[in-house]
Amino acid sequence: MRTPIRLRCFRHSLTFTRANHDRYACQLGCSFPIVHSIPLFVLEAKYVRSFGLQRNSFRTAQLDSFNGTSALRKRLKRLFGGRLITLNGKDVLEAGCGAGRFTGHLLAVDANVFAVDLSGR
Fold it and tell me: What is the pLDDT of residues 28-40, one digit of tens each?
């Protein structure tokens, strides 16, 4: 049985609990909203919005499945020593996933992917 990923407060290192259906909170009062099933750990700011604008404007530009190439799959294989199958069943954090350009390839080999990205709505 797989252990769920535990989210921790970056200020206090305490495990977040689901305060209700729309928030995560730590025991010392740090609280972050959950919007459309996505926890938001960064306050809305101009630089954060730009990531969302880029991701939404060019959502499929870097996806192998849409551009008809295998460039990202080849890059991912190179980064992991030539064999993606070694990630089967492994927990993988894909920080800065954007539109998920590597996510599909990781899921295809049955990796347990936790993909996160910094962006505005």
Answer: 989 888 887 778 7
